[in-house]
Design goal:
The chain has 459 residues and is of the alpha+beta class. The chain is built from 14 helices and 16 strands. Strands 10-9-8-7-11-12-13-6-14 form a 9-stranded antiparallel β-sheet, with helices on both faces. It has a 5-stranded parallel β-sheet with strand order 2-3-1-4-5, sandwiched between helices. α7 links the parallel β4 and β5. The termini are far apart.
């Protein structure tokens, strides 16, 4: 499909400080669609994470049918093909419109942030499950407001359709699979995928993401399409991490006062020794809290007589949690493809606070490990950066674009032989074996300065 026209880009909203006006523009609405096992949940979780870190207010609109089907006796087979099915889909349509309008109004309550609404179901989805004749009846049902398909399409700024893995890849369903709740067979998944594409093909800003052998490439393509529409620096592209040190404290303090700078606490708990399954909690922090903890971190880092692990960081984390706000939760699972490690991929799903704590309570085994980090996100010129450190470790890490010609002037990258915790890992790959009797080919190399590497040090 063609690139977004100027009108789309002009209406795409950037967060405060990104050069856009402070007007109360309506939220930018992105729809993710596709058949079962297409990656919608993972894409939604990643988009929420990245857009939030770039200063957007991100709202995820719940799928509409679940409200009714999960809290009732569900869909009755005798409704199929009858007016009862038409009325049910009209109920879903009206409810979805009401939800979307409520979320848009709620988004406008924020005094300065621009908003993005992410939907994995929208008003048009009702058409996927009915015939063309039934769909016309849904739109024109007596006693209800008259809608046209064009008017419904106009509600959404961007539609991204993801192809199911059932088309040519690793697809699992039913008991014993990586998603026991998925009931579609591969053929049914393909049929629904084709139907979704047929339903949304007339949207003027439809983007299609085909199946990719590497799942990460597929999800990054979704992010790229959203980046094209919103024009957000740092949302896409290859990045790298290196240890660094702050050379000018006053510049760091000035940076913390900028509206484009934000701080957060990220806690990751791995549920298994192989570190393939985890739950994560992210929370916003006042910049002053980040600076205070960072100063303590620097003092400990300068104390060469004591190991970082000798410090009790529990109190620091407790202080951060007490001052934190805007909590969000996520589950991450690495799906190992039987065809080979190269085709394995990471899935991400936004979960509720209750599900997060239930996962923690159910995971008290010896293989569980948890690690927390403080992250500072900021812009320097047109480049996006993340400056972070893990509790219990001594490295301050800068995450930045691999294409960046230089780093911010108040920071200095450490030479490879000056990185106190990374030196050994640079010369000897850090490897985790998920099971003690697993063959060597199952061994997994951890990236230096990654969350997995930090968690491995506390196992």
């Amino acid at each position: 499909p063609p690139s977004p026209p100027p009108s789309l880009r002009a209406s795409a909203m950037a967060p405060s400080g990104h050069g856009q006006s402070q007007g109360r523009e309506r939220p930018f609405m992105v729809v993710l669609t596709g058949g079962p096992s297409s990656g919608k949940s993972s894409a939604l979780a990643l988009l929420r994470d990245r857009l939030t870190s770039r200063g957007f207010q991100v709202l995820t609109v719940p799928e509409n049918a679940t409200h009714f089907l999960a809290n009732s006796e569900g869909f009755q087979p005798e409704w199929a093909g009858t007016d009862a099915q038409v009325r049910m889909q009209r109920i879903f349509l009206d409810f979805q419109i009401s939800q979307e309008e409520a979320f848009k109004s709620f988004a406008l309550l924020h005094p300065s942030k621009r908003s993005v609404l992410l939907l994995d179901c929208c008003t048009i989805n009702s058409k996927v499950y009915v015939s063309e004749e039934q769909w016309e009846k849904v739109l024109k049902l007596p006693g209800h407001e008259l809608y046209t398909e064009q008017a419904l399409f106009a509600r959404y700024d961007l539609v991204v359709s993801l192809q199911t893995t059932a088309c040519e890849g690793h697809y699992e369903y039913g008991p014993g699979s990586n998603n026991p709740g998925r009931y579609h067979t591969p053929e049914q998944a393909k049929e629904q995928d084709i139907r979704c594409l047929e339903v949304f093909r007339d949207h003027p800003q439809l983007r299609v993401v085909p199946h990719c052998p590497n799942f990460k490439d597929k999800i990054e393509k979704v992010v790229e399409f959203v980046n094209d529409a919103l024009q957000i620096e740092g949302l896409t592209g290859r990045r790298k991490r290196m240890a660094c040190r702050v050379m000018e404290k006053s510049a760091l303090e000035a940076l913390l006062q900028m509206s484009t700078t934000s701080a957060s606490l990220v806690t990751s708990t791995f549920m298994d020794g192989g570190m393939r399954h985890s739950v994560r909690r992210r929370a916003r922090l006042p910049s002053k809290v980040w600076l205070d903890i960072h100063e303590q971190f620097e003092k400990r880092r300068a104390d060469t007589a004591a190991a970082a692990s000798s410090y009790d960081t529990a109190n620091d984390i407790t202080v951060c949690v007490a001052r934190a706000s805007n909590f969000s939760y996520e589950r991450r699972d690495e799906v190992v493809c039987p065809k080979g490690e190269q085709q394995s991929y990471l899935t991400r799903k936004v979960i509720s606070e209750e599900d997060y704590f239930l996962a923690l309570e159910s995971n008290t085994g010896k293989d569980a490990s948890s690690v927390a980090k403080l992250v500072l996100r900021f812009l320097d010129g047109s480049q996006y950066y993340e400056l972070f450190f893990f509790f219990g470790r001594k490295d301050l890490i800068l995450d930045f674009s691999a294409e960046a010609a230089a780093v911010p002037s108040f920071l200095q990258l450490a030479a490879q032989d000056e990185q106190p915790e990374g030196a050994a890992l640079s010369s000897v790959p850090l490897v985790v074996t998920p099971e003690s009797d697993a063959p060597a080919k199952k061994r997994r190399i951890l990236r230096p300065h990654s969350t997995e590497e930090a968690a491995f040090s506390v196992l």
